[in-house]
Design goal:
alpha+beta, Nonspecific Lipid-transfer Protein, Chain A, 6 helices, globular, SCP2_sterol-bd_dom
């Protein structure tokens, strides 16, 4: 991700490759979760990744466990994050500053903004 423009990332984020990359990223969230940092946190975080089509994943944090599922439930999320493919990949690879992304409207957050501000401390985010 480092060194690539948003357009370059968007060019490669299509079809089967996009599906595979999103699946890998969300599949690793459970393993990269830091239960000690989350403490008694209980939250549903909805990720809306836009691009060639919108894909929704939900991350549930409760009782020191993180679970991830593809798709949207009827449960109200405490936090919803919406961004394009390039912004998402920058964010989860540690190559994007979430505050800057919000200010430049590449990342839209609704709901518990305090949760959004501290989200990175609940996961080991690799630098790539």
């Amino acid at each position: 991700m480092k060194g690539l423009t948003g357009g370059q990332i968007d060019e490669i984020a299509h079809g089967e490759l996009r599906t595979r990359v999103l699946g890998e990223v969300f599949g690793r969230m459970e393993r990269q979760f830091r239960p000690a940092a989350a403490g008694a946190l209980s939250a549903l975080i909805r990720w809306r990744i836009t691009g060639e089509s919108e894909v929704v994943y939900e991350t549930t944090i409760a009782d020191g466990v993180c679970t991830v599922r593809e798709g949207r439930t009827d449960t109200e999320a405490q936090l919803t994050l919406m961004m394009g493919d390039a912004a998402f990949l920058r964010l989860v690879s540690g190559n994007g500053n979430p505050v800057t992304m919000v200010l430049t409207r590449k990342l839209k957050a609704s709901g518990d903004l305090g949760l959004a501000a501290g989200l990175n401390r609940y996961f080991d985010i690799p630098k790539a």
